Amino acid sequence: MNAAFDTAFGTTPDKRPESAAGHFAARALEVRIGGHHVCSGLDLVLMPGERLAILGKNGAGKSTLLATWAGLRAPQGGEILLAGKTYAALGAPAAARRRGWLAQKQHDAFSSTVLETALTGRHPHLGRWQWESDEDIALTRAALARVGLEALEEREIHTLSGGERQRLAIATLFTQAPQLYLLDEPLAHLDLNHQIAVLEQFSRLAQEESAACAMALHDPALAARYSDRALLLFGNGEFLLGKSEDILTAEHLSRLYAHPLRAFNDRGRRWFVPD
Amino acid sequence: MTKHRRAFLVLLLLCALALGCALFAMLAGSVSIAPGEALTALFGQDSPNAAIITRLRAPRVLAGFACGGLLALAGALMQVLLKNPLADPYILGISGGAGVGAMLALFFGLSLTGINMLAFAGALGAILIVFGLAHGDGSWTQTRLLLTGVIVAAGCGALVTLVLSLAPERQLRGMLFWLMGDLAQVNAPLLTFAALIVSLAAVLPFARELNLLARGGEAAQSLGVAVPRLRRVVYAVAAFATAVAVTSAGTIGFVGLIVPHLVRLLIGNDQRFLLPTTVLAGGSLLLFADTLARTLIAPQQLPVGVLTALIGVPVFLFLLSRHPRQSF
């Protein structure tokens, strides 16, 4: 079943020259968490400009998989390569210049301002004794403007709403400016307008700056609209990986969520509604 | 940024404050000494009171500043390490271990060197027990570290009480003074001061990484911090600083908890400013408190730990009430 949809190397070879290793590769990846099987034998190469949506029920292991891809936890088998190298070979700072990770939750134990928080994204680009330059601050302000937080730069982060905090986390990723974005629920806490705005931003990064994105999403319709490929995690180690239009169907999604879904077409877009 | 300018200003002010406290400590006492005489005595010129300056007051100034700085630095580091603004250098049972060692030494009537050695051994023992038992990985470690430390500290507290209740009456006063902190017992102030310099120098290169660690281990790792290594460095330095301070001067409370907080309220959370400023503020506070402790009702001496608390608590409450909405 996995092999039938696996497009990691097969379906569009013309777009994937042999020489380019891609931004990210997972080979024969096996991920488990506390006896729970997330996936086994996962082979995936994310090419520049590619967007991958990850869907699954609560607890299927979307966050665990993304954290593993981000090098924050070790896989139980297989290997992960970032621009052809393992995380251990790259080292933490070099890895942080290549991949960014959006946490599902932000833990703010200490007080800090919006600007200071977004400025932390520059950390991997600075030397040990270097201070943030005016250029770094300008970059950070631009990133805040991209998520509509430019007016709040002096605000205390503890006074932000959930949606504002989430947009700040995304702005921090923009200041980090990696080539690979691993996004654990980028739409959490966001209003509809901001959901679309954020997905548009990442799509633009993919198109214009050849960034690659992998994002855990909850809405299959948004996944269909904003992803090139989709990965469904069934929560028992099984997965489906392939082009979004092949993978995101009412049949697969009904099986994924163990609830019947119906698909509607409207102006060339697919929508999924639970029965 | 204006924030940096403000922090830099506070840092400079605290340098001046530390020098002022040192001067005050040199001049105040049962024999009052003129500033000029104190200075010339420090540079080796002989005068009637030169011995008081070079043998008594200067070593005590050095010891007081060093212990205060060490405790405040250890507190700031523990707060980042445990991601808990209420952590203090004693939270992991280090002072408890040192206390047990010191009480046993006092009980058996050992010399000052013996007391220091047993106290240091006790501190190291507590560190090894806590870190050995809390070994693990992931976020579980922080909770587990905290719990293990609190339990070890409680156990040590019980042992200290046991020794106190068994000790003959004539030893009790010495024991209580040790437990409340007493700078008169520091016998190698230069070493203590060197420990402060080494500790600060060891963590300053990691200051920006500590800013990220305070925002969470995974977030820090994803931004390019080698978190496991950083945690080991921070824990080792904090434990070392606490062990040296406790061994030198007994358990002096409040400095490690309150000073990093005070500084945070003044200049914010950037560890690049926070760590040196904390050292200066902690050193100044303990120096000032110790001078008061030995002059207020001279020739009697008060336990300096009582004074650090009496000075620290109202200042802290005042600053806190000025920032009603700031959570930290």
Protein model, in words:
The complex is a heterodimer of chains A (275) and B (328). The radius of gyration of chain A is 19 Å and the shape is globular. Chain A has helices at 2-5, 62-69, 87-90, 92-98, 114-119, 134-146, 162-176, 192-209, 220-226, 244-247, 250-257, and strands spanning 24-33, 36-46, 51-56, 77-82, 99-102, 180-184, 212-216, 229-233, 239-243, 261-266, 269-274. In chain A, the strands form three sheets. Chain A has a six-stranded mixed sheet, with helices on both faces. In chain A, strands 2-1-4 form a three-stranded antiparallel sheet, with helices on one face. In chain A, strands 10-11 form a two-stranded antiparallel sheet. In chain A, helix 6 (134-146) crosses helix 7 (162-176). Chain A is of the alpha/beta class and 275 residues long. The two termini of chain A are 26 Å apart. By secondary structure, chain B is mainly α. Helices cover 76% and strands 0% of the residues of chain B. Chain B is built from 14 helices and no strands. Chain B has helices at residues 2-27, 35-42, 50-81, 94-107, 112-133, 140-166, 169-180, 189-203, 207-213, 217-222, 227-249, 255-267, 271-295, 304-322. In chain B, helix 4 (94-107) packs parallel to helix 11 and helix 13 packs across helix 14. The interface between A and B is medium-sized, with 38 and 31 residues.
Describe what is shown at a glance.
The complex is a heterodimer of chains A (275) and B (328). By secondary structure, chain A is α/β, with parallel strands linked by helices.
What quaternary form is this? heterodimer
Bulk shape of chain A: globular
Main sheet: strands, sense, barrel of chain A: 6 strands, mixed
Structural class of chain B comes to mainly alpha
Keywords for this entry:
heterodimer; A: six-stranded mixed beta sheet; three-stranded antiparallel beta sheet; 11 helices; disordered N terminus; B: 328 residues; mainly alpha; 76% helix; disordered C terminus
